[in-house]
User: What shape does this take?
Amino acid sequence: MGRPSKKSHSKPKPPPYVPFRWDILNSSAYKRLIPSAAKLLPYFLGKVKCRLDDPALYATQFTFTFQEAEKCGFAKSTFRKSYVDLEAKGFAVRTMKGGLREGNAKVSNRFRLSKDWERYEGGIGKGVIERAEPDYAEIFINKAKERLTEKEVSGGTRDGKY
Assistant: This one.
């Protein structure tokens, strides 16, 4: 009889998991999350394939679609409330707003993880972390002005009116 193969002696591979640090669990920001946002946070942490001590963890952008949220058990409105709460408490930042674009192209929301939860000071009426959000109205107006100047250069519309 020969020796049994090494495979039979090896330990079974553990199932996949998402590492969740104690400082996150014990933070006041995490304790004040709505329950659905607390359920969404591990999915966000699992989307970024980095170690917890890797600086790329907070720089990597990822998508999380409404279809993925539905597979995880979230209704659309609950998912929206959850990621808004994660943003307010400083766990995630939406870097690009999804939706329909020109030509009916669907674009997913893009997120990245944030360490702003460390600066969160909870309490009633406090705790929302201010950040420089893009002013979508200003962006829309600037794009409209650019298109208007393009029409002036090209000679306007067919009937000569703007």
In short: Residues 103 and 143 are 16 Å apart (CA to CA). The chain has two domains: 18-129, 132-162. The two ends are 91 Å apart (CA to CA). Residues 132-162 form one domain.
